[in-house]
Design brief:
mainly alpha; 2 strands; 77% helix
């Protein structure tokens, strides 16, 4: 792995985090709109309350991906945004519509509010999925607005991935909401979301199988990458995680289902990256598109510092959410499956001291090495220790709060 490839890995991690976290936010209104009767009102209330603490924070990952892309791969960023500005604009409008629908639904339980929120649940995942599909199918040539304005994102691969994104969001939302309802002791609601999760999972799996066939016809290079080598391993891991999720839902093991569903998504995205490399766009490799080493190192250091703030904040937020601190009344009702805030304990003093030593060595190597392995090793050590320090800080904050 070269230095130019590290930002690509960060982008894939950011995309996975956005799909896993924000995807459930986009999928939740679909279940609100399709619910009827007294159960429907309960479902709408549950989806609103479950997303309340986190819906806005999830979009940080989309911003993260965009910043890394335009900083390190400016030609790729310019090519994608100039050719695919229509679906990207639709995605932005969908995010705005989702925010408006969410805020209004807190005070108005009317059909037009849920229609507005649900339309965004279709528009944004579909539009972002078509953008991914356009890059997979090789429909975005390098250069300013070099691709076709419409066929670049309205092609079989783009449409298929857009549909897959919609079904995946609905699936993730049902899985997460089933676990949340069980945690708060609402058994009937948990069963309702469990049934929806099983149906959505089956539909998503079917769309995925059809998608493989579409890739074979429309994006042969990526298809070959997904059916051989490391790409195939990622696909098999995703399939296994998906089956585990379905089995866990059937057995009402919602904690396991939540994490296995996220793992399935992450494996698919990793497989995409493995299948498409070394090209980012047709004729434009990662190495040729990347900025200079100095820019990349500067970005990585900035990302590490940002993660020192972001990761503890998000861990604290999700720890409080899963611990029931934002439930009505301030705590979990306790009748269902317990989901403690990750069951974390403060880090031991020896681990903290070791982290500080590694950080000191890393900073020393970074400043005394002009180039070569010493510089890369130093940067890696600094990134690892900053990330590890942030995680340990979050663990301490959550443990103290408990």
């Amino acid at each position: 792995m070269t230095l130019a490839e590290v930002p690509v890995i960060l982008m894939l991690i950011g995309i996975a985090a956005y799909v896993v976290l924000a995807g459930a936010d986009f999928g939740a209104p679909f279940w609100s709109l399709t619910a009827r009767g007294e159960r429907g009102k309960e479902i709408r209330t549950a989806t609103h309350q479950a997303m309340a603490p986190v819906w806005e924070a999830n979009h940080v990952w989309l911003i993260f991906v965009l910043v890394v892309c335009w900083t390190v791969y400016p030609e790729v960023f310019a090519s994608i945004f100039s050719t695919l500005w229509i679906p990207l604009l639709l995605a932005c409008l969908g995010i705005i519509m989702r925010a408006v629908g969410y805020m209004v639904s807190g005070v108005e339980d009317r059909p037009w509010v849920w229609v507005l929120a649900t339309v965004s649940s279709f528009v944004t995942p579909f539009a972002l999925g078509t953008v991914v599909g356009a890059t997979v199918a090789g429909e975005v040539p390098a250069g300013n607005a070099a691709g076709d304005l419409f066929t670049s994102w309205l092609n079989p691969t783009s449409i298929m991935i857009g549909i897959l994104a919609i079904t995946l969001c609905a699936y993730l939302a049902a899985v997460y909401l089933a676990g949340d309802a069980r945690r708060t002791g609402r058994q009937g609601l948990s069963e309702a979301f469990r049934t929806r999760g099983l149906v959505a999972g089956a539909v998503t799996g079917l769309v995925g199988v059809v998608g493989i066939a579409v890739l074979n016809e429309d994006a042969g290079r990526v298809y070959d990458g997904l059916t051989s080598g490391a790409g195939l391993v990622a696909v098999l891991i995703s399939a296994a995680a998906g089956l585990l999720t379905m089995a866990s839902l059937a057995a009402r093991r919602f904690n396991i289902a939540r994490f296995s569903a996220a793992a399935a998504v992450a494996a698919v995205i990793a497989g995409w990256g493995l299948a498409q490399e070394p090209e980012m766009l047709p004729g434009l490799t990662i190495e040729s598109a990347a900025a200079s080493d100095n820019v990349i190192i500067g970005l990585l250091v900035s990302v590490a510092i940002g993660l020192l703030i972001l990761i503890p904040s998000l861990l604290l937020l999700y720890g409080l959410v899963l611990g029931g601190r934002f439930d009505p009344g301030g705590e979990s009702t306790g009748a269902g499956e317990k989901t403690p805030a990750f069951g974390l304990k403060p880090p031991r003093v020896a681990i903290v001291v070791l982290t500080l030593i590694v950080a000191a060595v890393g900073w020393t190597l970074t400043f005394v090495s002009d180039s070569g392995p010493g510089l890369y090793l130093g940067v890696a050590m600094v990134l690892i220790t900053l990330f590890g320090g942030g995680v340990m800080l979050a663990f301490s904050l959550i443990s103290t709060d408990q």
